[in-house]
């Protein structure tokens, strides 16, 4: 059985490392609760943070291209490199794990879900979702849905 897409990397990561990432998010929120003027800057940083998927894709593409070029111009044995790399990429797509994942996770590369948790919590801290509370009792479901979309787009 294949793991759920959104949680497959976290499921394949050690509990200690997952706790570390959760603690970093909590620390960020405590800091920004005391310094709300820094929230916009942190949100901008989060918008530019590379997640584990992007990091793996860039790493795999670089290694596969390098192996292909070396195989084409120097020695065909280098073609083993792109074969191994694409195998790892397939393993990651199916299981959420491949040999580079633990290395990148220890280097601090987070999942999209972890980045989004921090982003959403910071937006809530800033008050971005306050408008939904005012509309949550409204009977018109379309208006409530529109308010939710507008709050998320901020």
Class based on secondary structure composition and strand pairing? mainly alpha
**Average residue-wise pLDDT:** 91
Q: Roughly how many Å is the radius of gyration?
A: 21 Å
Euclidean distance between termini CA atoms: 37 Å
Q: What is the number of beta strands?
A: 0
Task: Count up the helices.
Answer: 9
Q: Name the shape in a single word.
A: elongated
Strand content: under 5%
Low-confidence stretches: none
Helix content: over 70%
Q: H/E order of the elements?
A: HHHHHHHHH
Please summarize the sheet with the most strands.
none
Identify the notable features of this structure and list them briefly.
154 residues, mainly alpha
């Amino acid at each position: 059985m294949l793991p759920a897409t959104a949680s497959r990397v976290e499921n394949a990561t050690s509990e200690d490392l997952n706790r570390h990432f959760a603690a970093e998010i909590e620390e960020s929120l405590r800091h920004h609760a005391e310094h709300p003027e820094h929230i916009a800057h942190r949100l901008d940083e989060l918008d530019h943070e590379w997640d584990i998927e992007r990091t793996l894709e860039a790493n795999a593409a670089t290694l596969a291209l390098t192996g292909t070029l070396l195989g084409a111009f120097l020695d065909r044995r280098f073609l083993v490199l792109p074969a191994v790399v694409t195998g790892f990429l397939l393993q990651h797509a199916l299981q959420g794990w491949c040999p580079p994942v633990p290395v990148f996770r220890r280097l601090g590369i987070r999942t999209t879900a972890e980045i989004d948790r921090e982003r959403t919590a910071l937006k809530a801290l800033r008050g971005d979702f306050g408008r939904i509370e005012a509309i949550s009792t409204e009977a018109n479901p379309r208006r409530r849905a529109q308010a939710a979309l507008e709050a998320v787009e901020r």
